[in-house]
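Run: sequence + guanosine-5'-triphosphate -> complex structure.
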Amino acid sequence: MTPAAARDPLPVRSVAFLGGMAVPGGWRPPPGLPEVAFSGRSNVGKSSLLNRLVRRGSLARVSNTPGRTREINFFRVDDRFLLVDLPGYGYARQGKAQRALWRPLVEGYLRESPELRGVVQLLDIRRDPTGDDVAMFDLLADIGVPVLVAVTKTDKPGRTDVDRRLKELRAVLSVEQDAIVPVSSRTGAGRDELAQAILALVRQPSWKSQ
Ligand code: GTP
Ligand code: MG
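>> structure
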């Protein structure tokens, strides 16, 4: 084992795609393992981050076309926990029918999954949080689920801009400071920190049982 592998907080041996939930209350894998879901605006980089986290190049589908992930996709990591790739929101050209489906699908999943332990909410470092992002934070707060904020695409701006934006976000977001993790799916920066934070969520009992 190389020293780098020895330090990996989340060594992943196998990842299996279990399937997708397409409609509210539709098929989902039987609950049993803890679940952590990835949420955020369309195109913010949810599928890319999930792939980077488990070190699988193209497990979850990544696309330049926003609105690519339409179902709730379930991935099992080492019989340890499930990662859940949620469809993005805020994509103007989403069809009416698709947009009408999004809220009951995602809210239904978040409220009715007994093994859900946390949500990784993604924000693009280059963009101000949108009204949809604020609505999502409100929904997560209403549900009471623990939230990690992954600030994505930190490879894009320069170092000074990254630091300034992180400071701004830390000031406006009402989550614990160490729950805000800067990441880049392109370079892998922040991957281990995020992995560690996700493992901490997975190891906790559900907030519903506390
Ligand atoms: P939906 O499935 O439509 O909700 O999008 P998503 O949030 O899953 O985004 P996805 O992972 O498909 O990525 C969208 C685009 O952003 C792709 O072109 C990615 O290559 C790009 N991207 C994602 N993460 C990063 C990052 O950290 N840095 C850079 N430079 N590009 C990224
Ligand atoms: Mg996606």
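>> summary
The helical segments are 3-7, 46-54, 96-112, 131-143, 159-172, 191-203. The CA atoms of residues 114 and 209 lie 10 Å apart.
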